[in-house]
Write a structure and sequence with these properties.
The chain is of the alpha+beta class. It contains 4 helices and 7 strands, in the order E-H-H-E-E-E-H-E-H-E-E. The chain has a 7-stranded mixed β-sheet, with helices on both faces. Strand 2 and strand 3 form a beta hairpin. The chain is globular, with a radius of gyration of 15 Å.
Length: 155
């Protein structure tokens, strides 16, 4: 996918987000959770479309200089094309511009593709949440990203 662009998604885009949720996750967020989060500005969603169809999205928050990646999903037919990398990179860039100090995420222990992606961006494994996922009691690995402090190396 050579000319993919990230765009900020809103309430009108929830249908496409929900469709990706159904295709990508066993444990899914509800439409109401997405709507509430967007309406209250608790998080942002970036997406990538092709011909009007949402192919991938990342949902993330930035509160008190702490980023949390809540969900990242790519349509099964469009995986391994760099869409997740592009979205994660843009989310990190936004949070960097807005002075994030740290970022966090949880990922299923079995999701090696996602783990590899997160490590490429500098996330490090810092813990485990035992039996985290309700569908199969799989552990979640907790990852952290340390952002460079504003002014590092500038003085």
């Amino acid at each position: 996918m050579q000319t993919a662009n990230c765009e900020l998604l809103g309430v009108d885009d929830i249908g496409g987000v929900m469709e990706l949720e159904r295709m990508c996750f066993r444990t899914r967020w509800t439409r109401e959770q997405f709507l509430l989060g967007l309406e209250r500005h608790a998080f942002r969603i970036l997406g990538i479309r092709q011909r009007g169809v949402l192919l991938a999205y990342v949902a993330f928050s930035l509160i008190a200089q702490e980023m949390e990646i809540m969900n990242i999903a790519t349509h099964p037919f469009h995986r391994r094309k760099g869409l997740g990398r592009l979205l994660l990179g843009e989310a990190i860039a936004i949070c960097t511009r807005e002075n994030a100090l740290q970022g966090f995420l949880e990922v299923r222990r079995s999701n090696t593709g996602a783990i590899d992606l997160y490590r490429k961006f500098g996330f490090i494994e810092v813990g485990t949440r035992k039996n985290y996922y309700p569908d199969n009691k799989e552990d979640a690995l907790l990852f952290r990203l340390d952002f460079p402090a504003a002014g590092d190396g500038a003085e």
